[in-house]
Amino acid sequence: MSKLKVFILLLLAFVVSCSKKEDKSPSYHKGDMTILTDESFKSVTEALADGYMINYPETKIKVVTKKEDLGFLDLLNDKARIIVMSKELSAEEVKAYEKQADLKFLPAKFAADAVVFVVPKSSPKTSITMEEISEGMQSDEKNFIFDGANSSNLNFVAQKLKKLPKDLKYSIIPGNKNVIEELNKYPDKIGVVGLNTISRPYDKNAEKLRELIKILPVESKGKLFSPDFEGLREMKYPFTRVLYFLTNEGNFNIASGFIRYSCTQLGQIIVQKEGLQPYNIYRREVQMR
C-alpha cells in the first residue's frame, strides 16, 4: 500500500472519529426529551414544547403528566431531566436537590398561574373569603373538591394556609377537567382547579369547561381579587402562583435550551396566548400626546 493511500485512510478515520464525538456532545437543537408536569400546567407546557419543536425540528419533546411531588422525586432519582413546579420547596428539599443534581437551586420562572375556586353556573354564590377557605379546609363536611392528593393545587393551597396537606380535609375527583364536569352533581361544594385548565382563550375544550362554571373572586382584607391578568401580574389575587422549570441537566442540552426558549420573548408570547401572565415580559402601554 502506497504512502498516499495510508494517509487517506488515516485522514478518513480521523474525520469519522471526530464526527462521532460531535454526535455525542450536548446539543439543544436535536434529540429526545420528556418533561414531567402536573396536570394543572399541562396546557402551557405542551404549547411551549410545540413551539420549541417548530423552531428546532430535530428535537422531540414528550409531555408526561405526573403529580408535582412525585415528579420532584423522579428528578432527584435521575428518572427525569426536567419538571414543571409551582410550590415553594422547603429548605430540606432544596438541599436534597442541590446534593442529588450537583447544581445550585435556580428555578427558571416563566409564568404566573393561579389556583381558582369554582362553582356551577347555577350556584347563587358569587365570591369566597379567605376565612371560608381556611375554615372549610378543616371541616368534616369536606366541601372543597381537589383533583387529587400530591397535586399542585392541594400543595399550593396548603402552603397558603400554612398547613400540611395531610392536615386538611377535602374531597377528591381525579383530574381538573373531571372536577369541573362533575361539579354540578355536588351543588353545595366548591371545585379547586388550576387556572391553566380553562385559561386558553380560543381553545374549544377550554371554552366548554368555562361554560359549566363561574370563578369565585377571593375576598381578602375587605377587597375582592380575581385571577385576571391584573390580579396575576401584580400578584394581588391571593392564590397566584409562579410556574418554574427545574432540571438536573448540568450542560447545555435540550432541557437547558428549552428553558431558555420558554423564558425569552417567543416563549413568553406563548404563555400569554395560553391566558396566563408571562413572568419575564409585561405589556407596555405608551401614551402619545
Automatic annotation (TrEMBL):
Keywords: Signal
Highest taxon, organism lineage: Bacteria
Keyword Signal: yes
Record has Signal as a keyword: yes
Sequence ranges assigned to domain PBP in this UniProt record: 31-262
SUPFAM superfamilies, per database record: Periplasmic binding protein-like II (SSF53850)
Entry protein name: Phosphate ABC transporter substrate-binding protein
